[in-house]
Automatic annotation (TrEMBL), chain A:
<keyword id="KW-1133">Transmembrane helix</keyword>
<dbReference type="InterPro" id="IPR001638">
    <property type="entry name" value="Solute-binding_3/MltF_N"/>
</dbReference>
<keyword id="KW-0029">Amino-acid transport</keyword>
<dbReference type="Pfam" id="PF00528">
    <property type="entry name" value="BPD_transp_1"/>
</dbReference>
<feature type="transmembrane region" description="Helical">
    <location>
        <begin position="328"/>
        <end position="349"/>
    </location>
</feature>
<keyword id="KW-0732">Signal</keyword>
<comment type="similarity">
    <text>Belongs to the bacterial solute-binding protein 3 family.</text>
</comment>
<dbReference type="Pfam" id="PF00497">
    <property type="entry name" value="SBP_bac_3"/>
</dbReference>
<keyword id="KW-0813">Transport</keyword>
UniProtKB/TrEMBL annotation, chain B:
<dbReference type="InterPro" id="IPR017871">
    <property type="entry name" value="ABC_transporter-like_CS"/>
</dbReference>
<dbReference type="InterPro" id="IPR050086">
    <property type="entry name" value="MetN_ABC_transporter-like"/>
</dbReference>
<keyword id="KW-0067">ATP-binding</keyword>
<protein>
    <submittedName>
        <fullName>Amino acid ABC transporter ATP-binding protein</fullName>
    </submittedName>
</protein>
<dbReference type="InterPro" id="IPR030679">
    <property type="entry name" value="ABC_ATPase_HisP-typ"/>
</dbReference>
<keyword id="KW-0813">Transport</keyword>
<dbReference type="Pfam" id="PF00005">
    <property type="entry name" value="ABC_tran"/>
</dbReference>
<keyword id="KW-0547">Nucleotide-binding</keyword>
<keyword id="KW-0472">Membrane</keyword>
Amino acid sequence: MRLTRPLLLLAVISAALLGFAGSASADEGDRPVVRVGTEGVYPPFSYRDQDTNELTGFDIDVVKAVAEEAGWDLKFVEAPFDSLFPALDSDRIDVIANQVAINPERKARYLFSTPYTYSHGVIVTAVDNDDITTLDDLKGRTTAQTASSNWAQVAKDAGAKVQYVQDFGPGVELLIQGRVDAIVNDNIAVLDYLATSGTDEVKIAGDAGDEILEQALTFRKSDADLQQQANDAMKALTDDGTLAKISDGYFGADVTVQSGSEDVDVEASDSRTTWEVVKDTAWPMFVGLIKGNIPLTLASFVIGMVLAVGAALARLSSSRILDWIARAYISVIRGTPLLVQLFIVFYGLPQIGIDLDPYPAAIVALSLNVGGYAAEVVRASILSVPRGQYEAATVVGMDYWQSMRRIVLPQAARIAVPPLSNTLLSLIKDTALASLVLVPELFREAQVTAAATTEYLPLYAMAALYFWVVCYLVSVVQGPLERRLGRYVA
Amino acid sequence: MSTSHLTDLIEVRGLEKSFGDQQVLKGVDFSAESGTVSVLLGPSGSGKTTVLRSLNVLETPDSGLVRISDASLDFGSPPTDKSAYRRAVKALRARSGMVFQSHNLFPHKTVLGNLIEGPVQVQGRDRDEAAAAARQLLEQVGLAGREDAYPSQLSGGQQQRVGIARALALKPEVLLLDEPTSALDPELVGEVLAVIRDLAAENWTLVIVTHEVRFARDVADQVLFLDGGVVAERGGAEVLTDPREERTQRFLSRVLDAG
């Protein structure tokens, strides 16, 4: 995938303008640091432990055992499944440990280790649905799938319409709500979900064909060394029984060998009550707010304001080139989704050598976004300052920048505060998107726990409550600020 | 009137200015000695405000020369170098202070803040020294004790007196006043004119655009009657009582009838 040149150029200039230059380093010291991409929301393979909130699961234990054997230091990066492959492509992670099934398309693009899970697909339906029992029955029906998962392809091949969801849990919700007819997924994941949620509203309706799927660690084509080390380690772990033991602990069967998947017995990966889940998640979400959303908001707002004032002055300047550049910037920012901007900065720019870490990338994208939106507010506010003020500043001897800084902008600020407060409130809420570029934040924490516990409504409601409280506090400050800036108005 | 331009503080020669295809100034000449009061008057559209605003380059003439004291700029052949031009404009502006028709005080600054803004930010003077000088000026215009008020808390006449003090705070050689009482309620005009009268008595060099003919009679050393973009009549205060030109007479009778 290549992006068009002008867009890239603009993004490059913007990034360079902000002076960010970061790069991920894969090697430190003697032991290579291997960055592992995983969902963290896919129990029992990759999820957060209910007591420690640490990343755990079958895939996590396997990759840890492999790392021990191969002499790697691991660094885990959690991201939605659809972000894992772009992250691997753009060198933000080195391996995916997330039940990635081997298929021909992926084989053409990536390297796979020896498989460590053998499973088969099952079809999940609402408990009162008796119409669907085989893949053939999916023709013309709607299924809920993760976009880049191989199960989406299986469902499509069977003639189903596919509704894309972020991970398995929300798909089940759609199923219960009757918005989709079925889900095709791995039998182990489904069994875990049924055990954890205790739901009696969905059931396994039948097998999705008789194909056995092989899941393996996924590497970039250029990392044959890592693949080789993983395979050597995997062999040793199979020989000494370690893999079988890990599997037995999770599934009561050895899914690391063919035919093992038939006898799987999954225990619930989470057994807490709703209240316990909410209580246990409140703190991690708060930490996400303090470490993620709030710093992102502050940094992006400050930088965004500088960009906005710059763009507004460029629009007002007599230079047609500056005016044109500012117009183009504002138009591009306002005319494209923030989500797309985030993805271009984080997953796109590395392809032309601009490799930002998650925080800087999120700040660059959010700042550019805020700047584009606030520029017109700032411009209108500057225009609202009477011409006589410029003349008065001129005759006391001020130059352009002095009169802007001392006379015009302070008066424009008073006009700009109410609309800019809106921009700030939007920004606070937009930081929830930062988890898509791997920044840990509040909403991501809610999603992680919701996936493991199926407590969607309480957790998402709590996330909403956090955002609302922060926004409320901001609006409380707005009043006094307006009075302070307007104290000279009779 | 002096004939030797060397003793003149202000010298204007051949000033021309067009807005679009309308020529507002068609060659204006005049000079003023130090310590004198020059009154510009004439019907609306005669170009009197444009002449005043040319003296500090709020309007840029198309051609002609403006000199105040030792700073001059020939707009017919200005310095080709941009920064040399800017320096010349800056030097010319530094010689004068300006009082606007609608005061244009900085609304977000206090009275004192308005007065010391130029001295401290532009001239780099010491803040305390500038504040002390500003308080003295406020006393002079009858506003002692109001330094902490915001402009919006003052009456129109008080605002205009602050405007005069702000212009004086820059220690200019010439004070330019653009219809300083036109925007005021009639009962507030007197207090502002009184302040200007005092300045004239203290031998400030003033250039005033005004419609206050009776006031002009009292203070003017020189009267310039502009009409159609040229100086139609020039003389002492007697121009206002005994004009030679017919169009001056017509204008005066109209203004005096209205007043």
